Amino acid sequence: MNERSVLLTGASSGIGRALALVYASQGVTLALAGRDMARLEAVATACRAKGARVSITRLDVRDANATADWVTQADGHAPIDLAFVNAGIGAGLEETAADFGPTRMILEVNVLGALNTLEAVTGRMRSRGRGRIVLMGSLAALRGIPGSQGYSASKAAIKALAEGLRPQLAQDGIGLSLVMPGFVRTPMNEDKGFPTPLRIEPERAAQIIRDRVARGRSRIAFPLPLVWGTRLLALVPPLADALAMRAARRGGTGV
Ligand SMILES: NC(=O)c1ccc[n+]([C@@H]2O[C@H](COP(=O)([O-])OP(=O)(O)OC[C@H]3O[C@@H](n4cnc5c(N)ncnc54)[C@H](OP(=O)(O)O)[C@@H]3O)[C@@H](O)[C@H]2O)c1
Predict the structure, then answer these.
(1) Does the CB atom of residue 13 touch ligand 1 within 6 A?
(2) Considering the entire predicted model, what is its pTM?
(3) Within-domain flag for 15
(4) 255 is a domain residue
């Protein structure tokens, strides 16, 4: 796969930052977006040091017009080969039945924000009949997690969108990969007080994602023991609830 022009939301931190760095090299153009310009600038500097051409944009993905403008501009500058719909919030935010505010915000960013990006990128790629889109899901999609119900719901929505859109986009020559990581050490789950079994570093996650995207994988779920563990737990709802509530009492849950 030819990845000469790569677009990334949520590039200022965590997995997005690591992905920007793993794709950065001579001859590659990176269009990076996030909200924190200082952190974005630091990522851009590191990517330029590896030879990439980099543009950075302050963007809130909830703003559909701004997202469309950014994608159009980036695509006009260097037609996008690969787009990461990565920006997200939530694992670690306190979600309760007493206050649905955090749950609403998570859905706005993780689902509607992703949809804004997806719509804009799909429009550009369809006109050329090529490209690949990578949607950032989570293993949290496999089961509603007490205390992280909005986060789980947002990632279940991403999973369903990916599965439904993939065959349609394929007809237009566009590939789609769904990434479902377990725990990755990022500010989203760092020092939040909940257990993070089998957590890996963002650099390792970025390498896994890059390798499997290059092979055209439609679903990229890792690490394998957690994938199977989560699937098994989903088959035994009372056990899953008991474990999740125990984790929630210790400070929250979420991947
Ligand atoms: N870490 C994990 O264990 C894990 C596991 C599974 C899936 N994921 C998913 O991986 C993705 C990246 O998460 P991460 O762990 O790397 O978290 P992170 O370090 O907190 O990074 C989140 C990124 O999303 C951006 N973002 C948040 N809200 C935004 C908004 N409204 N508009 C534009 N950008 C926004 C942030 O930008 P600013 O900081 O500049 O605002 C930041 O660059 C998320 O979709 C997350 O759900 C993470």
Answers:
(1) yes
(2) 0.95
(3) yes
(4) no
